[in-house]
């Protein structure tokens, strides 16, 4: 059984340490105005690309891997945006949130876990993580408004 979430908090980039997860908010193309969400093969809910950081993997390397595996991204740039923390009764877990610009999507590999990738203007109604995603989505909206397009693309790492 999953422990109930008591609070989700966003933090400035690199404030937290011991990251466990990455979350990637992605748009198609430099002029993209919609967010890309994924649907898992075993669920009817939507989520951003992201996942667990493997041992020895940096948050950036994890974000790149997860973006490729979960969206089929072939050509993209990515940058860290901010940190987040999920608190439960027994403790907390930390993650890093990334912004990605995808120039080209390939096919979703059949051996991976995602069934479908789709663009949405905001976040979808049916979310896999409804306690977490709205909080970090709101922060990503503010982050992307505060950073001009030029600043964002200067930060992006291929």
Please give a quick description of this structure.
The protein is α+β, with helices and mostly antiparallel strands. It has helices spanning 59-71, 133-146, 149-155, and strands at residues 5-11, 19-28, 35-40, 46-47, 49-52, 73-88, 91-105, 114-120. The N and C termini lie far apart (38 Å).
Tell me what the CATH architecture is. Answer: Alpha-Beta Complex
* CATH fold group: Nucleoside Triphosphate Pyrophosphohydrolase
How does the helix and strand content classify structurally?
A: alpha+beta
Count of individual helical segments? 3
Measured distance between first and last alpha carbons = 38 Å
**Highest-level CATH class:** Alpha Beta
The average pLDDT value, as a whole number, equals: 91
Shape, please? globular
Any overview of this molecule?
- With 158 residues, the protein is α+β, with helices and mostly antiparallel strands.
- It has a single domain, classed as Nucleoside Triphosphate Pyrophosphohydrolase.
- Helices cover 22% and strands 42% of the residues.
- It is built from 3 helices and 8 strands; from the N terminus they run E-E-E-E-E-H-E-E-E-H-H.
- It has helices at residues 59-71, 133-146, 149-155, and strands at residues 5-11, 19-28, 35-40, 46-47, 49-52, 73-88, 91-105, 114-120.
- Strands 1, 2, 3, 4, 5, 6, 7 and 8 form an 8-stranded mixed sheet that branches.
- A hairpin with a 6-residue loop joins strand 2 (19-28) and strand 3 (35-40).
- The chain is globular and about 40 Å long.
């Amino acid at each position: 059984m999953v422990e109930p979430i008591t609070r989700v908090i966003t933090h400035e980039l690199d404030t937290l340490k011991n990251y466990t997860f990455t979350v990637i908010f992605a748009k198609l193309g430099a002029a993209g105005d919609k967010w890309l969400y994924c649907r898992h093969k075993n669920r009817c809910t939507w989520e951003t690309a992201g996942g667990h950081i493997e041992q020895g993997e940096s948050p950036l390397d994890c974000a790149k891997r997860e973006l490729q595996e979960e969206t089929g991204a072939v050509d993209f740039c990515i940058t860290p945006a901010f940190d987040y923390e999920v608190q439960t009764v027994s403790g907390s877990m930390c993650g890093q949130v990334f912004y990605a610009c995808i120039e080209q999507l390939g096919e979703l590999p059949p051996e991976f876990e995602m069934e479908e990738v789709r663009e949405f203007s905001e976040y979808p109604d049916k979310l896999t993580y409804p306690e977490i995603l709205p909080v970090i989505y709101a922060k990503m909206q503010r982050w992307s408004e505060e950073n001009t397009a030029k600043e964002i693309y200067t930060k992006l790492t291929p």
